[in-house]
Design brief:
The complex is a heterodimer. Chain A is mostly helical. Chain A has one domain (57-266): MetI-like (MetI-like fold), CATH 1.10.3720.10. Chain A contains ten helices and no strands. In chain A, helix 4 (89-102) crosses helix 6 and helix 8 packs antiparallel against helix 10. The longest helix of chain A is centred in the C-terminal third of the chain and has 38 residues, at 184-221. Chain A starts with 6 loop residues before the first helix and ends in a 13-residue tail after the last helix. Chain B folds into two domains: 6-254, Rossmann fold (3-Layer(aba) Sandwich), CATH 3.40.50.300; 283-544, Rossmann fold (3-Layer(aba) Sandwich), CATH 3.40.50.300. Helix content of chain B is 36%, strand content 25%. Chain B contains 21 helices and 20 strands. In chain B, a hairpin with a 2-residue loop joins strand 14 (353-358) and strand 15. Classes of the chains: A mainly alpha, B alpha/beta. The interface between A and B is medium-sized, with 29 and 40 residues.
Chain lengths: 281, 549
């Protein structure tokens, strides 16, 4: 409310928000309310926080998954390709590109992309999220932010998939598969990749959390509605119930992403599966 | 007989390394008729695996054929394009590798892997998936996988090592190659399994008229499988001929050494059997009714269904005495509980019931300090010769580590040079890291580490695992010699009955957690009482059986 707030009004707000009770009581009240789905009231508009977050959340989740998908779609083949020709020019170029991508924060890649596409080339919209009811409009608005967010993870994935693939390609069962006359394509993209991708999946869980956090810069740069945009605005307004709500939701998303990654192990690595019917040992 | 299916002539293979080029094979000549079996024997490093890889053009990227030719069914293998080569691999020449645990892809079902192999070699016309699947199931049945039509949908990790090697053989022979290369295909298996797999290979190759190339360090395996044998040393074939000739009239000293170190019950080995029994009657280690049971941890589903947890009786009521300065051999197949027992002896593993006492003190009642003092007197030489040495420590640090742990006063310490000398290693090895050592050298460092603190009782778990015959023989000689010099009491755990036959005073045979037979070594070896001991003795491939009929 700032230093010039009316003391009377301040007292009223304090009481209304429960700030006059002790800290432990506040925590307990918050927890009980949160469990019931009540995260308090928006300071400015007086709408329930859950409603506000609910309106912004889908944009961020779509952005994070789009970035993740993009990172996987570019990073994984890049890693496989580099690993199948270790030491070649392609491999070296991939290494240089991956490392530069890893070190590039999303606010830099976002600005560069803005400069390149909408400003210099005049393609793709620069700001906003478009209308979700108009999918092609929404998608064209999604491309640049998602790409800006994905850049770092393209680099990471390419590096990790490459080293995983190199290790797997040197293993005995790959040698045995070659001795059986299987094609190199089948060996690289099926036999080896399925083994090499396992450590990558754990990383994807972490990456999703990172993408949600990284979304803040990207959303601000591209003036795109979303949790990051919301939290920056709310911080400026000292709209703490919203900030608190966003922190909670982000934490929940992060935990569930990691849980999902752990569960997906079950599908990728048969050795982790329990209760196999017909298993002898 | 038509022309040879495989003819290697004048083959040279060179590896490029950082230190320069290294020629691994020199002028190799080899000929193999259809349905014939030829053995290639030699110690590790002699180039036999390079030769087998070259036969499928599977050399590592830094390896190169620099001269010679490999003709496979009148086709020059070295001139084939990648696509042609792919068609030849598997279909005309197949290969079974050493380690069954890692040669199947862990992420795919057995059925997928077998069907993919078949599909890779369909030249013209389409075969239905159902038909390919049926052929795979039939082949699995043929190699002795029970319940094959259901088990084929399992993943490799659900099979035991022996079963996996059967599956590998089934996959390779499914393509009915003209030549099958077996590179140490049974070396990782224990003796009874080895005998079964060799029998299976022999049968299947006869059925399909497949020519066999058997590569092994074990001349016994080759004598069982082959008619002819080539002896390799330092990349050259130094001697070749019929198995009987090589065994009875080896011309080269190297061959004589190989033949002499092969295990046999009919002939004494190169190492003279120990006659001087210095064991006195006092029992140092007394194991009384020892039980170690492992209970599987029930999952949520098990608890919901109220399944009773499965109990694995790894050690199930074992009584064993080891007398002062005696060598006892504890023999059993993998899974018989012998390692669990060995660990329990040194208080390194869990004990469910029964008691172990050392020098009159029960190990069960010891506190932390007591255990530590006891561990100075009882040491273990671990099976994993590299795995038990920290990869980040130099040999000298590894050797003096026990002194730091036990706060040994300087007067009781050996110097690093002394320790290395004790196990026959030159002093220069002190500054090396474990990965720079050969298997035999790493094993020796493990032994030196165990002996550093002047123990009275040493448990050696598979002291020769992973070593070729001459390295194994010299490690055994070393143990024998150290026992005499230092007055050690030894327990040697192994799956190889012949190995301890020469070195042990007494042998205990273990099966399914129980000791089925104990007795003086000569008695157990010459007149085994228990049928299981007989099976163990019979499963060892005996080169002389082929000669003496």
């Amino acid at each position: 409310m700032g230093p010039r707030a009316d003391p009377e009004f301040a007292a009223k707000v304090r009481e209304q928000m429960g700030l006059d009770s002790s800290v432990p009581t506040q925590v307990v009240t918050f927890l009980f309310d949160a469990v019931r789905g009540d995260l308090g009231q928006d300071f400015v508009t007086n709408r329930p926080v859950t409603q506000v977050i609910g309106a912004y959340l889908p944009h961020t989740v779509i952005l994070a998954f789009a970035a993740l998908g993009l990172a996987a779609a570019v990073g994984v083949p890049l890693g496989v390709y580099a690993a199948s020709r270790p030491g070649s020019a392609v491999d070296n170029i991939t290494s240089i590109v991956s490392v530069s991508f890893i070190t590039m924060p999303s606010y830099l890649s976002g600005l560069l992309l803005l400069l390149l596409f909408p400003v210099m080339l005049g393609v793709l919209p620069a700001t906003g999220a478009g209308e979700i009811t108009n999918p092609s409009d929404y998608l064209t608005h999604l491309i640049l932010p998602a790409a800006a967010l994905a850049v770092t993870w393209v680099g990471y994935l390419a590096r990790i998939v490459r080293s995983g693939m190199l290790e797997t390609l040197g293993s005995n069962h790959i040698r045995a598969a070659r001795a059986l006359g299987l094609s190199e394509r089948l060996i690289a993209y099926r036999y080896a990749l399925k083994n090499a991708i396992i450590p990558t999946v754990a990383l994807l869980g972490v990456s999703l959390g990172d993408l949600l956090g990284g979304a803040i810069f990207v959303e601000v740069i591209f003036a795109r509605p979303g949790l990051g945009y919301l939290v920056v605005e709310s911080l400026a307004d000292r709209n703490y119930p919203i900030v608190r709500g966003v922190v909670l939701v982000t934490a929940l998303l992060f935990v569930s992403a990691n849980l999902l990654a752990d569960l997906s192990y079950r599908f990728l690595d048969p050795r982790v599966r329990v209760d196999q019917p017909g298993g002898a040992r | 007989m038509s022309g040879p299916v495989l003819r290697v002539s004048g083959l040279d293979v060179t590896y490029r390394t950082k230190a320069g080029t290294f020629q691994a094979l020199h002028d190799i000549d080899l000929e193999l008729g259809p349905g014939e079996a030829i053995g290639i024997v030699g110690e590790s490093g002699c180039g036999k695996s390079t030769l087998s890889s070259a036969m499928l053009r599977l050399l590592p990227p830094n390896g190169q054929v620099t001269a010679g030719s490999i003709r496979l069914c009148d086709q020059e293998l070295l001139a084939l394009s990648d696509a042609e080569l792919r068609r030849v691999r598997g279909a005309t020449i197949g290969m079974v590798f050493q380690d069954p645990l890692t040669s199947l892809n862990p992420a795919f079902r057995v059925s997928t892997q077998m069907v993919n192999a078949l599909r890779a070699h369909i030249q013209n016309g389409r075969a239905s998936s159902a038909d390919l699947h049926r052929r795979a199931v039939r082949m699995l049945e043929r190699v002795g996988i029970a319940d094959a039509d259901r088990r084929i949908e399992d993943y490799p990790h659900q099979f035991s090592g022996g079963m996996r090697q059967r599956i590998m053989i089934a996959t390779v022979l499914l393509l009915q190659p003209k030549v099958l290369v077996c590179d140490e295909a049974t070396s990782a298996l224990d003796v009874t399994l080895q005998a079964q797999i060799l029998e299976l290979l022999r049968e299947l190759c006869r059925e399909q008229e497949t020519a066999l190339v058997v590569i092994s360090h074990d001349i016994g395996v080759i004598a069982e499988m082959c008619d002819r044998v080539c002896v390799m040393d330092s990349g050259r074939v130094i001697e070749s001929g019929s198995v009987a000739d090589i065994l009875t009239r080896p011309r080269r000293p190297y061959t004589r050494k190989l033949v002499a170190s092969a295990p046999s019950r009919h002939h004494s080995r190169g190492i003279p059997a120990r006659k001087d029994s210095t064991a006195d009657e006092r029992a140092v280690v007394v194991v009384d009714g020892l039980h170690t049971h492992f209970t599987t941890k029930p999952g949520i589903v098990d608890r919901l269904l109220r399944r009773t947890p499965r109990t694995i009786r790894a050690v199930d009521g074992v009584d064993l005495n080891v007398r002062h300065n005696e060598t006892v051999g504890l023999v059993g197949e993998s899974g018989s509980g012998k390692t669990t027992l060995g660990k329990a002896l040194l208080n390194l593993g869990p004990v469910t019931g029964g008691d172990i006492s050392f020098d009159g003190v029960s190990l069960g009642g010891l506190d932390r300090d007591g255990v530590r003092r006891m561990r100075r007197r009882m040491r273990m030489i671990f099976q994993e010769c590299y795995g038990s040495l920290s990869p980040r420590m130099r040999v000298e640090q590894l050797l003096t580590e026990p002194y730091r742990i036990h706060d040994t006063p300087a007067s009781d310490r050996y110097s690093v040079t002394e320790l290395l000398g004790l196990v026959g290693l030159p002093a220069e090895q002190a500054s090396k890291y474990p990965h720079q050592l050969s298997g035999g050298q790493a094993r020796r460092v493990g032994i030196a580490r165990a002996l550093a603190v002047h123990p009275e009782f040493v448990v050696a778990d598979e002291p020769t695992a992973g070593l070729d015959v001459s390295a194994a023989a010299s490690v055994l000689n070393l143990l024998r010699d150290l026992r005499a010099r230092l007055g050690l009491t030894l327990l040697i755990i192994t799956h190889d009955l012949n190995l301890v036959g020469d070195i042990a005073d007494r042998i205990a045979v273990m099966r399914n957690g129980k000791i089925v037979e104990t007795g003086p070594a000569t008695q157990v070896m010459d007149a085994p009482q228990h049928p299981y001991t007989k099976t163990l003795l019979d499963s060892v491939p005996d080169p002389w059986a082929a000669v003496s009929g």
